[in-house]
Amino acid sequence: MIISENDKFIFIHIPKNGGTSVALPLEEHLKYNDIVIGGTKYGEKLLQIYQKKFGVSKHSLGIEIQDLVGKEKWEQFFTFGVVRNPYRRIVSIYTYSEKKLSSFFGTGILHHSNKETLAYIPQRIKSQIKYLGAKVNSQYFKNTLWLLKWPDIKAYLDTANFSEFIRHPFLMKDNSFRTQWTWLSDRDHQNLIVDRVIKLEEIESEWPKLCQDLGISCKLKFENKSASRSVELTPEDRSYIYSQFKIDFDKFGYLP
Q1: Total domains in the fold of the chain
Q2: What is the pLDDT of residues 133-176, one digit of tens each?
Q3: Are residue 98 and residue 167 in the same domain, yes or no?
Q4: How do residues 201-256 score in pLDDT, each as one tens digit?
């Protein structure tokens, strides 16, 4: 999420929609009184501070940011967000969970049954601690416990495949599993409250126009890609995802 007082724009960062690729080049133009929360190394350092003090975070809803800055400023600033094909977005949530788990525990944790996975984790933690040494044990434990609390990670560890994953109750509690319309609409989810919506699939061609709207010049940087492997969606999977995110298909013009 970015609030630029100098260039007068606000970027709403929807999870798994290329937000880091948007935030990185824009960050280069930020001044001392601009705010970036998450999405960049600097933004990640500010994340806990702003979340604790002001109740806003990397993936705050547009209406939450509007409450923070006030409706008058919101209407004065150029506001925008990036959306994505709902099918690809949900696959990205799944592959991102794989990516995070493999970065902590190695690829041996992937594609196991629940019983095998739960047996593997403590073994991997022990080997990592032995390898890393006492100086980083505390931080490693802290990061590991933090990761294992994520609803999407819990859902991944408790399922054997993508079809089970998207239907798991834990995933319903995950912030990223909200509709994209939730991020960009008003409190009653009736009306769009941002000036511009850009499709991730069109971001390269739309980027020059966005820079023109923002009054800056910078190059797009593709970062944080999580599609480590292809995932085959069954007709039942597609039907389920469509039922959960119908409003995103309808509002943003994606085909079922």
Answers
A1: 2
A2: 555 555 656 677 677 788 998 898 888 899 999 999 999 989 99
A3: yes
A4: 999 999 999 999 999 999 998 865 654 568 999 999 999 999 999 999 999 999 99
Q: Domain check: are 95 and 80 in the same one?
A: no
Residue at 118 is within a domain: yes
Q: 128: domain range?
A: 90-171
Instruction: Please indicate, yes or no, if residue 103 is contained in any of the structural domains.
Output: yes
Domain assignment present for residue 123? The answer is yes
Same domain, 124 and 165: yes
* Pair 106, 79 in one domain: no
Its pTM surpasses 0.70: yes
Whether 219 is in a domain gets the answer yes
DSSP, residue by residue, the chain: -EEETTTTEEEE--TTSSHHHHHHHHHTT--TT-EE-SSSHHHHHHHHHHHHHHS--TT--HHHHHHHH-HHHHHHSEEEEEE--HHHHHHHHHHHHHHHHHHHH-GGGTT--HHHHHHHHHHHHHHHHHHH-GGGHHHHHHHHHHHTT-HHHHHHHT-SSHHHHHT-HHHHT-GGGS-HHHHHB-TTS-SB-SSEEEEGGGHHHHHHHHHHHHT-------------S--PPPHHHHHHHHHHSHHHHHHHT---
